[in-house]
Amino acid sequence: MRILLLGSDISFADKVFDSALKNGWNINHVKDLIAARLALLETSYSIVLIDNDLSSKFGLNLLRNMRAQYDVTPVLITAESCKVSERITWIDAGADDYLLKPFEFDELWARVRAVTRRSEGRMVPLITWGDIEIDVVKRSVTRAGKPVRLSDHEYRILLTLMQGKGHVVGHEHLEAMMYDGAATIESNTLAVHICQVRRKLGAGIITTAYGQGYLMANPC
For 33-44, how does the pLDDT look when each residue is reduced to its tens digit (9 = 90+)? Predict the structure, then answer.
């Protein structure tokens, strides 16, 4: 089993790391949102653990973005807070389980095993628009059956527009999906990436709604 741990509490992370190794599991610890996003892009994980000692905004941003991108990797939250409202927020955002500190590691790993077992039967649909198809598990794009190589930002733009189902998607929403709010965006960055998507998929595939945003053109 390969585990990604997101959290800023080094002492807690070290304990989780040591316990995971004793169980023969690989674990990668990252301390911020950008590192977590890169880790998920580079590696397929069995489960993501988010320690809520990290600012909940960052953890929630990661979780919500994962689910928006149809990433069904199980997510388990660990936290000291016992507020019902906070647990509900995480569960509604797509978390699979929520474990209060302090806890025994045997319980943590039992919950990890249970969550990963439940996730094995999940089905993720292919996203299609005309002859364009996105496999959200493989993060691959094809047009008319032929593979199209997109950068991460280009992929996120295309997926977000296709999720819009022909409706206008605003500039701010597209930028938020590209960067998770974790970077300063230059004024022309979105337009540059849109241009690249058009170049790779066809100039008429994306329509500009001037002053509003972009939308997928009606498929032929």
Answer: 889 988 988 888
